[in-house]
Structures are given as C-alpha cells and as structure tokens.
Amino acid sequence: MSRGGGNRSDRFARWSRAILLGLALLLSPAALPLAQGEAQLAAEYRVKAAFVYKFGEYIDWPSDAFTHSGNSIEIGVIGADMLADELERLVSARTINGRRVTVVKLRHGDPLDGVHVLFVGRSEESTLGKLLLAAKGRAIVTVTESDQALSMGSMINFVVDDDKVRFDIALIPVEQGNIRISARLLAVARKVMPKSS
Questions:
Q1: Which of 47, 122, 148, 157 gets the highest tally of CB atoms within 10 A of its CB?
Q2: pTM for the model
Q3: Which region, left, alpha or beta, applies to residue 162 given φ > 0 means left and ψ of -120 to 50 means alpha?
Q4: Which domains does the chain have, with CATH numbers?
Q5: 37 φ, ψ to 5°?
Q6: pLDDT for position 87
Q7: Contacts of 40 (CB under 8 A, 6+ apart)
Q8: Angle at CA of residue 133, ends 131 and 135, nearest 5°
Q9: Cβ neighbour number for residue 113 with a 10 Å cutoff
Q10: What would the DSSP string read from start to end of 58-122?
Q11: How far is residue 180 from each of residues 12, 20, 120, 175, 188, measured CA to CA in Å?
C-alpha cells in the first residue's frame, strides 16, 4: 500500500501523469534517436506493463472467476514477450487488492481458464479477432494495442497519442464479461465507448 494523503483516484491520477511524463521524455527524439527503435519499444512496454498491473486495482471480477487459480490474479500475455518479462519483474512479491499476481506467456491454442487479464500484442493482429472471440463473455479483461481492437471486442486498448501511452475503454465487452471497472479508471481513460449507442 502506498503512503501519503489523497484518495485512490487522486493517487491514480498522479501516478498516471508521472507515467505519461516519463514516457514523453523517453520517447522524445532528443532522448532516443530513431535508430534505437528497440529501446523505444522497451520503454513503451515498461509503461504499458505498469498500466496493466495498475488496472487490476480498479477492476472487480465476479467471485467465480477465481475457481481455477485459487486466490491469485493471472495475467496472460500473447505476442509481447518483452511486456511479459517487464510485468514479471514488476509484480514480483506484489499483490492486487490482497491477491498474488502471476504472469503467464501464452501461445496459440493455450486455454484461457484461470486468466483474469489477457494482453494481446500488436504482433498478433492477424489472430486478434480469434483471441478476443475466445475471451468474449468471460471474466477476462482483454487489453490490446491494435487500431481496430475495440470494435473487435477488446475491453481496453492502448494508443500512443502525442508520444504518450493512453488507453481507451469499451464498456459493452466489459459488461458481457460480468466485470466492473471503477469510475476512477474510466475517468483517466482517453476515451470511453458507452454500453449502448
């Protein structure tokens, strides 16, 4: 638990601004020449990993979502091993709302039983629809980084906007998965797609 004053919403907003400022500095042309594309991607994935971990504090899963994994929150990652490695370092010895956090690198065909958060990297764009369909209606928070992901059924999609990592949220798949996302998280999203038109 963090120390200091302010409510959870204020702490998240401050944390979010600090992450965005850090990314802006890391991704500025002066800080990273274009030849360092891999370093730039690593910096982007560090920020995204921090967001993925932090999202869990603002999400309520139904109680039956923990039957396969006991008391832990499992984050599955496919198509982004760099992000998975960063997440593993980040969650080591940490919890989300009192639950231990585990990170699993998934491959095609792996079952999603016990997964609470599924991150699908941009390298899986050709199979994104199939992966989202497999998670549809289940208590799995889907997090993506592809332009058409929300329209395909993703719940949270990362975008890089003006050299800052931001995220959009679609409420229809959230509702279909019987998941609740805190208004505090919705308030810091770049865009929220409503439950109905």
A1: 157
A2: 0.80
A3: left
A4: 8-193 (3.40.50.2300)
A5: -60, -40
A6: 95
A7: 26, 27, 32
A8: 75
A9: 11
A10: GEE--GGGGTTTTT-EEEEEES-HHHHHHHHHHHTT-EETTEEEEEEE--TT---TT-SEEEE-G
A11: 17, 25, 21, 7, 16
Rounded distance between C-alpha atoms, residue 67 and residue 107, angstroms: 22
Q: Are 155 and 131 in contact (CB under 8 A)?
A: no
Token representation of residue 144? 């993506």
Task: Tell me the C-alpha distance between 27 and 16, whole Å.
Answer: 16
Computed over every residue of the chain, the mean pLDDT equals 84
The secondary element (H helix, E strand) that includes residue 49 is: helix 37-55
- The pair phi, psi for residue 182, each rounded to 5°, is -60, 145
pLDDT in tens, 132-176: 999 999 999 999 999 999 999 999 999 988 888 999 999 999 999
**Displacement of CA 140 from its chain's centroid (Å):** 11
Name the residue with higher pLDDT: 65 or 27.
65
**Is residue 23 predicted with pLDDT exceeding 80?**
no
